[in-house]
Amino acid sequence: MTGRSPQDERTMRERMLAGDLYVPDDPELAEASHRARDLMAAYNATSSRQGPLRRQVLEELLGSVGADTLIRSPLHVDFGSHLTIGARCFVNYGLVALDVAAITIGDDVQIGPNVQLLTPTHPVAAQARRDKWESAAPITIGDNVWLGGGAIVLPGVSIGANSVVGAGAVVTRDLPADVVAVGNPARVIRTVEP
User: Fold this and answer.
1) List 34, 76, 82, 122, catalytic entry
2) Residue 47, Cβ neighbours under 10 Å: how many?
3) Looking at the domain that runs over 13-191, which CATH code has it been given?
C-alpha cells in the first residue's frame, strides 16, 4: 500500500482517528504533533510551584483533565488532544501516552512512574512498514485502576474498573474489572475484593 485509493478522500487525521492505515508524516498531523511538543516542553519546564500555569498548559495540551488530577513531569504525548483523564488521578514521573488513537483514563486512577500507553501499531507486511503506514487502536482505563511502575498497555486494550496492573507488566489484551494482573504478557492472578 503506497498511497490513498481514489475512493478514500478522508484526511490522514480522519483515517488515523478511525483506526485505519495512515501516514504519520502528513503535514496536518505533523503540525498537530509540533503543537503538542511545544506545549509538552512548556509543561515539562514548569515546576509544581507554578500550579496555575501548569494547569493552564495541561488543559491546552490534553483533550480534557479532571479536577484535582496531578501529572508529574516529564509527560510525553504524540498529540495530547486525544488523551482524556478523569478527576482525582495521580500520574507519576515519565508517562508516555502515545495518543494516536484516543486514550481515555477514568477517575481516581493511579499511574506509576515510566508507564507507557501505546495506541499506535504497524503493519506486519514489510513493504507497508517501508512505506511508513501505521494504524492505531484506542486504550481505555477504567475508574480506580492502578498501573504499577513501568507497566505497558498495548493498542486496543481496555482495563476494567478497580483493577491493578503489576509493575513491569505488559497488557496485551483486555482485563476485566476487579482483578490483579502481572507479567509479560499480563495475566490475571486474582480478584480484588470490593
Assistant:
1) 122
2) 9
3) 2.160.10.10
Contact criterion met (CB below 8 Å) for 147 and 110: yes
The Cβ-side half-sphere exposure at 125, using a 13 Å CA radius, reads 10
pTM (predicted TM-score): 0.92
> Residue 175 corresponds to which cell in the numbers above?
482485563
Q: How far apart are alpha carbons 194 and 191 in whole angstroms?
A: 9
Share of the chain above pLDDT 70, in %: 95
Measure Cα distances from 72 to 30, 55, 89, 112, 178 in Å: 26, 11, 11, 10, 26
pLDDT in tens, 85-111: 999 999 999 999 999 999 999 999 999
Known catalytic residue at 122 = yes
Instruction: Kindly state the DSSP code that residue 192 receives in the 8-state scheme.
Output: P
Q: For residue 44, what is the enclosing H or E element? A: helix 27-45
Q: Are 137 and 156 in contact (CB under 8 A)?
A: yes
pLDDT band of 51, cuts 50, 70, 90: confident
Distance CA 39, CA 29 (A): 15
- β-bridge pairing 170-171 and 152-153: parallel
Q: How far apart are CA 101 and CA 175, in angstroms?
A: 19
* DSSP β-bridge partners for residue 37: none
Residue 79: Cβ-neighbour burial (10 angstroms; 0-12, 13-18, 19+): buried
Cα distance between residue 170 and residue 95, in whole Å: 15
